[in-house]
Amino acid sequence: MLAKIISRSVTGLFTLLMVSLVIFVSTQFLPGDAAVTLLGDNATEEALSHLREELGLNEPAVTQYLRWVGGIVQGDFGVSQTLGLPIGTILGDRFIASLQLTILTILVAAIVAIPLGVLSAIGQGSTIDRTVLSISYLGISIPDFVFGPLLIVAFALPPLALLPSSGYVPLSDDPLAWLRHMILPVTALTAVLTAHLVRQTRSGMLEVLKSDYVRTARLKGLPERQVLWRHCLRNGLATTLTVLALDLGFVMGSIVVIEEVFAYPGIGRLTVFAIGDRDIPLIQATTLVIAATFVVANILADIAHSMLNPKLE
Amino acid sequence: MKRGDIDTSVWVGGSITVFAVLFAILGFFWQPFDPLMIDLTSRFADPSLAHPLGKDGFGRDMLSRLMAGAWKSLTMGFGATFLALSIGVPVALFAGYMRGWVDQLIMRVVDVFLSIPSLVFALIIIVSLGTSHMNALIALGIATSPRFVRIIRTIVMDTMAHDYVTAARARGETALFIQYREVLPNIWPPIIIEGSINVGFALMAGAALSYLGLGTQPPAADWGVLVRDGQQAINQSIWPLLGPAITISIAIVGFNLLGEGLRDQIARTKVHEHG
Amino acid sequence: MDMEKLSINRRTFTKGVAATASALILPGYMRQAVAASNSGGKLTVALFKDLRTLNPIMGIFGNEWRCTANLYNNLTRLVPGGGVEGDLAESFESLEGAKVWTFKLREGVKFHEGSELTSADVMATFNKSFDPITSAPYKGELGPIASVEATGKYGVRFMLSSPMADFPKAMAGATARIISEAGIADFDNLNAKAYGTGPFRLVDFVPNERVVMERNPHYFREGLPHLDQVVMRVLPDNTAQQAALQNQEVDAIAEVDAPIFAAVSRINGVTGTQIPGGLFQNVVLLANQAPFDNPKVREAAKFCIERAPLAAALTENTGSPGDDHPISSAYEFHNESPALRQANLSKARRLMREAGYSNGVEIDLVVANNPSSRNRLAVLVQAMTAQAGINFKIEQMDNARYGSTIWNKGKKCYIGNYGTRPYADAILTKLYHSRLGIDEGRWATPDSDAMLDRARETIDPVERRKIYGEFQKLSRNNGPFIISSFQDSLFANWNYVQDFPMSAISTDMRLEQTSLGDGAPGK
User: Fold this and answer.
1) How far is C241 from C235, CA to CA, in rounded Å?
2) C-alpha distances out from residue A42 to A38, A45, B162, B275, C65, Å
3) Is B181 a domain residue?
4) Is B211 domain-assigned?
């Protein structure tokens, strides 16, 4: 098990390094001179070259890359070009805010989706199965940028006006206000994810139900309840866990839109801002952090998967 | 169940898909009114017989805009999927055929790309390409191709184990012949299914990009632009939002039903064949 | 001789204004004494778009100016109705026909960090603004300052390269806030720190999220400000703005997005206020290249625009039609004549034939994403001009790339976006002057420059009005812009918010007089 953890961590680290390279290379192609963007049209050539020097824009790409990665290893993400602040200081709070959103979303989605998916698979073709499937089709088909504003119209505007429409309050400041601010964005995010997860859980379970060893277990004459609990659920859940980790990438994509809709100060909104303003160090940092979260979640899911299901190894 | 029986979901999904495609093709050639013709005297007109979906904030006929937008959105969905497949299938065939360290290397690279959420990946590509309908299509195609490599490679691996491939190898056929004449014809069904599911995803992601102002450019509009415009006008009238929102949702349901239904059906057929 | 006389007039005039200024402050004290219950409390204001820096010299967005207006003071400040009065300056006067300006500073004014305001701070501020390394984006709007010198501990003298009657108004501008010497020394940290004298001190700043300020107990206007705390929150989605106001998460909206104005005004207990403004978006028809190098094609395009319906649609009935020059009715020197140009398609088509474009012409038009009304304007203009064969091909772009590759590069036509300025010269010189401004349409001639110079130097208001009237006519008939509508300044606040600052220049949001009445949740 330890060997597994170590080997997964090493490949994870390698993946991260490659991701950083991909991000760096693709942002190197961005047209527009960062110095011009920063100083605007009234900049003198003198000021421009001064700034280019300061930002290290004159150095070869390889040097820039190595310095960037070296800095990140030491926790230094560079300085945001548009905000003029060290990125580390901006990133921390936003990342924690987004992480809360993501974890809550995953939890809620798992609690709702896994039982529904299992029920639906066991009763394949039944009314429950059909209902769950139809609703989940709706869930994956309504785009988040439509669903979010509809939620605001329904719950934050009169006549209901139940919940705040936007913003974020730190949990430590006021737990109740924190919760009230989380409900709408989490709902918008879970709608899509739950639908997705139900379907994945269902098909995962169906596969297990049809697998040879479940058939063998049945042939051995084990009671159906035991077959379901001991064999199917455990294997099915292991698959679901992996799917859930993969879905984290999905959520990370959705938060870009949802944070914008709910003015939620997370890393997704920071990414959109960075891209809109061509703030290259900030684009690099936010996309790298999003990717790193995804990679780490995958490693954890992988390890949990093999702990739950040593037979598959 | 006999072979050839068709699931309800395939029926429904297939019908919606066919209807959406016909709607888009019709919309490419003809709309009831000029979708760009503004009429500032009838802004936000409610639905009527002449204008069944009402008018938008510039007095443009919503049905005509929806029809013209259908072409843009569906070309985004199909085009991005086609591009993703044209990248994904050859790479998957190559990796699955070569196996060993080549396969390992390719899959590592694929893992790297899969570590960046596809929407974020597409955003980065668009920022460097510039904003247009075509660039959004290219970005989405590139961003979704790694997923295809991963899925199709697994299928290729399975197929490579079949007798007819072993036989072809024994006959001394070339790698290309085996990849494209022996393996590829046998894996079309799963490719088409994954593709049709991806059309729904690409359609939605394309709309999201347009919604963020990074896809189709005005005055043309795909469904994403229409949703954004409708949402901005929600205080004046809900019709400009409802039409496109419902249409895009139904279209995606259609593609998903078709793809999933086909997948289920093929899985069942296989079980029958085996049993 | 004439100049001499004028300068005396000017001196008496400016002194008069400074005297009124102290009189104007008195009612503030009185109110404070009478209604002590008004003081205290927390006011939360919703902002709409970018808020990236608190550096007064480098800020380019309205929200940044709204914040620094409360952390800093200027030498002068605008008064409602178009005048100007001393702020940190006790008095000011002009010499040599408005070519030299002297300001006498108030004594005993303290910066937030404790030091006393002197002429050294004023000089440090302006020297930093004009340092080429700084590349201050709005230094052009500070006026033709040649040099700044101290005339004592509390006296400053500005030498201008050419006379400027509106110089005191330029000193009230958002990028002319007075920063302490210590602040200038710490310039790199001015993004997120405030070294001002303003009524509020900075507590917390998260770029594009929020600014938190608290009452400055040592503020030089005694008894002010009334509020204990001010929070400015950026809410970029208009639906979210509306809901936040409805739920009293915010007490006021500093800049209401036009599509939600009617809805927020309907909220029971909320007042929506609409003040004629001068914010506009101009379609730049570059006069340095085909087809708009031909004045007939520019005129043809202008004859395609149905101005009144376009303005109503674009601003959701919260604006007024424009006539291809930037001087809206919000400006002192706005001229009513000639009458608004009416659309005339047959005339437009005839002009196109005469210009040799009978088969029509295609032109790229670049539109930046923000504000979204630019896109809507592009679509409207595109549909209207297409009828005369002027076919704009719209290209959308993010603001950063637009800013660094398109805006004022004179290469591709685009849609610009300009806020209301405190006086006509600020916007006219900026847009049309080839040396002192950007000549955005690449259209300026020695004659047009000279006309602007003459207006800027003229002190007699009647004569100035005449010159500005002529310039408006010239830019309307021949100029390089389609300016089809002006957006009013829109505000919304709960009725318990008293004396919320509202003027045509909505970015001049000074909250020192604002207070909270009964029923305010922040009290």
Assistant:
1) 6
2) 11, 10, 69, 77, 19
3) yes
4) yes
Please tell me the total count of domains within chain B. Answer: 1
Segment C398-419 shows an average pLDDT of 83
Nearest CA in chain C to A177: C249
Tokens representing C117 are: 């305001």
- Kindly state the helix (H) or strand (E) to which residue B150 belongs, with its residue range: helix B133-160
Strands C413-418 and C361-368: parallel
* Residue-level length of chain C: 523
Rounded to an integer, what distance in angstroms lies between the CA atom of residue C302 and that of residue C475?
Answer: 12
Inter-residue contact C45 to C232 (CB < 8 Å): yes
**Measured distance CA(C66)–CA(C225) in Å, rounded:** 16
Q: Find the domain containing B76 and state its range.
A: 52-267
Give a yes or no: residue B78 inside a domain: yes
Sign of CA dihedral C353, C355, C359, C363: negative
**Phi, psi dihedral angles at C175 (to 5 degrees):** -100, 15
Instruction: Write the single-letter amino acid at B66.
Output: L
**Angle formed by the axes of helices A144-151 and A234-261, nearest 10°:** 70
CA angle C95, C100, C106 (to 5 degrees): 90
d(CA A197, CA A113): 6
Please tell me the class of the A87-312 domain. Answer: mainly alpha
If we measure between CA atoms, which residue out of C324, C317, C370, C252 comes closest to residue C481?
C324
Alpha-carbon span B20 to B24, nearest angstrom? 6
> Which two three-digit tokens encode residue C263?
């809805």
Element (H, E) at A275: helix A267-276
Residues C225-279: pLDDT tens digits?
999 999 999 887 777 788 789 888 899 999 998 888 998 999 999 999 999 989 9
**The token pair that represents B154 in the structure block:** 């697994």
Q: Running DSSP on this structure, what letter comes out for residue C42?
A: E
Helix intervals (H) in chain A: 2-28, 34-39, 45-55, 61-73, 87-122, 127-141, 144-151, 175-210, 212-219, 224-226, 234-261, 267-276, 280-308
Chains in contact with C via at least 3 Cβ–Cβ pairs below 8 Å: A, B
Tell if the CB–CB gap between A140 and B248 is shorter than 8 Å. no
Structure tokens at A106: 């995953």
- Identity of the residue in B41, B58, B233 whose CB atom sits nearest the CB atom of C379: B58
Which residues are CB-neighbours of A156 under 8 A, at least 6 positions away? A162, A163, A164, A165, A184, C243, C246, C247
Residues in chain A, pLDDT under 70: 28-47, 55, 84, 157-158, 277, 309-313
Query: β-strand C42-47 against C252-253: which pairing, if any?
Result: parallel
**Diameter of chain A by CA atoms?**
85
Question: A217 is written with which tokens?
Answer: 């277990």
Distance between CA atoms of residues C273 and C489, nearest Å: 8
Task: Give the Cα separation of C141 and B38 in Å (integer).
Answer: 39
Backbone angles phi, psi at C210, to 5 degrees: -160, 155
Backbone angles phi, psi at B160, to 5 degrees: -60, -25
What ipTM, to 2 d.p.?
0.74
C242 DSSP assignment: H
Report if pTM > 0.90: no
Asked whether C237 and C243 are in contact (CB, 8 A), the reply is no
What digits encode the pLDDT tens for the residues B133-151?
A: 899 999 999 999 999 999 8
Candidates C237, C249, C399: best to mutate against A (most CBs of A within 10 A) is C237
Residue B131 included in any domain:
yes
Which residue matches tokens 């709608």?
A191
| Residue A117: exposure state from Cβ atoms within 10 A (0-12, 13-18, ≥19) | buried
Report DSSP state, residue C341.
P
Nearest CA in chain C to B38: C383
Tell me how close the Cα of B54 comes to any Cα of chain C, in angstroms: 17
- Report the C-alpha gap between A116 and B228 in whole angstroms: 33
For an interface test with A, the pick among C209, C241, C370 (most A C-beta atoms closer than 10 Å) comes out as: C209
> What is the rounded CA–CA span in Å between residue C425 and residue C468?
9
Domain CATH for B95: 1.10.3720.10
